Structure formats: C-alpha cells, structure tokens
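Posted in: Structural Biology > Protein-Ligand Complexes

Title: Requesting predicted complex, fe (iii) ion in pocket

I'd be grateful if someone could produce the 3D structure tokens for the following input. Sequence and ligand are given below.
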Amino acid sequence: MARITSSVYSSHVPAVGAAIDLGKTHEPYWQPIFNGYAPTQQWEKENPPDVVFLVYNDHATAFSLDLIPTFAIGTGSKYQPADEGWGPRPVPTVIGHPELAAHISQSVIQDDFDLTIVNKMDVDHGLSVPMNLMFGSPNAWPCPVIPFAVNVVQYPVPSGRRCLNLGKAIRKAIESFDKDLNVQIWGTGGMSHQLQGPRAGLINKEWDNKFLDRLIADPEGLADMSHMEYVREAGSEGIELVMWLIARGAMSDLNGGKAPTVRHRFYHVPASNTAIGHLVLDNN
Ligand code: DHB
Ligand code: FE
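-- Reply #1 --
Done. Output follows.
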C-alpha cells in the first residue's frame, strides 16, 4: 500500500525563486537561506519520495475573484509554471499522478470534504519555490507531484481545525491506495508576513517559533487558533500557515501512531518581506 513517510513545511517566498533564477544564491543576503535548506536537499536525495502531495495556495494566478475554490486537487497529468508577470519561471514542468489523485479525490470527497477537481492549471511560486528549495534546480523534477491548492487569499478561508481534519482524511486516502508508494506531504506558505496596508513588513519571530513548537508537539491545540490570531500576530498573509496543518494532520501520531521525529528545523529573517520557516518531520 502507499504510505506517508514524512511531512515537509516551508515558506514559498517568490523572491527566493528570483534569487535562484538570477544566479544570486551565493550572495551574502541569500546564502544563509539556501544553507538552511541544504540538509533537507541532502535528506531528499537519501530518502527520495515516489510522489509529493504538495499543499500550497494559488496567488490569484490560476484562479481569480471569478472562481475561488476552497480546496482544489490537481488530477491532471502535467502542470506548467505560471506567468506571474515576468514570464514563466525557468523550472521544469510538474508531472502529476492522475491515478493517485483520482483515488484521493474519491476517498476524501466520500469523507465529506468537497474538493474541486482541477485537470488543467498553471502553478505559481507557491508550488515552484518549495520544489527548488527541497530538490534544487534539476532539468526534471525527481518525482510526480499532486498539487493541492487552498484558498487563503479571499475570505472566508478554511479554519485550522478543518485543515487538520482534512490532513487526516488525505492520509486515510493515501494509505488505501493499492500501490507501494512512498508519499511525502508538504505544507507551504508563511511564516509571519504582511505585504500591504499600514502594517506592511510585519514580522513576529517569537510567535513564529512558538508556532513551530506547537506544530511539532501540540497540533491538535494549534488547530483551534482563530483566523484573528493569525492575522493579528502573523500579519494578513500569515494566514497561509493554516495550510501547514493539512500536512501535519496526515502524520502518524494524529492517526493512532507514534510521534514524528524532527529531521530538520530552520528559521531565518528576513527574506524579502517575510520570515522564512522550515521543518521536516518523519513518521516513525
Ligand atoms: C511574498 C509573497 C508570498 O506569496 C509569500 O508567501 C511571501 C512573500 C512576497 O511577495 O514577498
Ligand atoms: Fe504566499
């Protein structure tokens, strides 16, 4: 059967993608950030997934105010990098896993989560930047990816509790797929940042680190955090962090198993207008 071996959490700052594309990763401003992901890149080489289930948000790129799915699962065979205003990023086409994605859709929808099925969409920095951070810049991505887009752009957005429970349903779906696949689930976005309005530039290091502590040790308690607290403490775009609870909900300890092992934890300020956070948890 397929199984979820690990969960990976990361910010997806677009300027990090630009630093890669413009050859600036060794500049003093950027180097500490890429150094922070080096242990994970090594670990990914040693523990390659067969499939990544990648939770991210679309930033009004594939979707717009015309159409706002709360949860959208990519069931297509491939996804092109989106043009976000400067042309598509020079990164490989994302290859999907239609068979597993269709199975997950069947199981999760029957478990009462109403997913939007997406067979065709372009994927923006929310997906492509974490791919670079974990896998570097290869000519082709090392494995298929199932994109899973969450609305955290236009209110109302889903609660932390709903995200955690959705993660549990995704785990159940993956573990009932009749093929021996090693699946990683990734949660992206965050950490504290606000890109607009009078509080633009807001970063809250103490709150971010507490969020990481609680994501590891108290995910059920963290799921009760209100939207108001995310926005007040982590800024208007800090709400992206609810997506991390989807990945966390898929881990063993929330489904009758043992607590995960922390493989890697990294936090850095600043990266563009945001704090960068990163965590790797292994199931035991
Ligand atoms: C920025 C955009 C994002 O989507 C994000 O998650 C963090 C930062 C930005 O434009 O700087
Ligand atoms: Fe974002």
